Amino acid sequence: MSAPTPQRDFALDIVRKLRAAGYEALWAGGCVRDQLLGLVPKDYDVATDATPDQIRDVFGRRRTLPIGAAFGVVTVLGPRAAGQIDVATFRSDATYSDGRHPDSVTFTTAEHDAQRRDFTINGLFYDPVASEVVDYVGGQDDLQRRTIRAIGDPHLRLSEDKLRMLRAVRFAATFEFEIEPATFRAIQKMAGEVTTVSAERIGMEIRRMLLDERRAVALQLLRDTNLLSHVLPEIAALPPAAWQQAMERLASLREPSLPLALAALLSTIPSPPAPCPLPPAQAVGRRLKYTNKEIDRAAWLLNHLPAVSQAPQLPWPRLQRILVHDGAAELVALHATIAGPADPALAFCRERLAWPAERLNPAPLVNGGALIHHGLRPGPNFAAILDQVRDAQLNGEIKSRTEALALVDRLL
Fold it and tell me: For the whole model, what pTM was predicted?
């Protein structure tokens, strides 16, 4: 089992306090799964037969947040190092009219609570006091089989929350599991219904897939389950050769940011000619509700990718402006996934990036204030003059402020 951490200790303390007050309490869901897989849980959830009001009575009103109380969930605030933990009352769910939330909940037993969860590997409980797994759904067997299986009727489980289709794919890819055939067929049949899920929730699942080291496997599973055309139609339309290239580029990345992973995924898509719809990075990023900063960075990487491949032939001032951008390292990493480690342009860029800062990006000899002091009025040609002076400096044609101002006079 996992080594002690502040949050693990806090989760154990919650169980003990609930039991001391006369209630049943167990760890539930993903933290149990991760422990049994030998992973460190990212967070802990506690399930109990105490009602939300009773949970708040045990831990105090000041240390609890009833944000999810309507669904039986109370957040308990712990020490700074431990953070906070959700404590949920055992429940059964009514129908899911919106494909996301149950219309109502009924407080029940641990066994019935397990039946309403999504997959068997997530339906496990754990008694941290007795160090025993409590399994009502066969989750331990499926962990041994390395299988993702919906609890009960796959169509019913997936119809309750359509996002579960994407979660099945993500879990299968991340843990190197197989999706059980009946669950797999249900996803294929219901794939078109995933669009009823909010764009933010779909975007978050795609984000998690792209940031996981088995991201290419996840994308292939999206394709095999018929989900890809509904969540990433731009990629689903790729011809076989371009699809294979995209998967190889994704797989070769090492701990990428979201913009870098997204750029690698989209790098085999030709930009649409004007006045067509948005370029791929903007189209995908906006639809999945990623931040403007992430979308802009992915677009910048794709826009400047051709320049890196021509780096040795580019005028140094043009390449220098690219290499001093804060996305330069990601741009070079993206080019490496495409051209390979022996590419001359890649070596050229890395050699320049290794230059000392004062050589790679020397301080400008003049700025706008210097031009005004020299007698120039800001106008349409102001920026152009500064650019020409900067180019001359980077090319080694001028080396002092005096020479820079003399060049300004000549340009005027």
Answer: 0.89
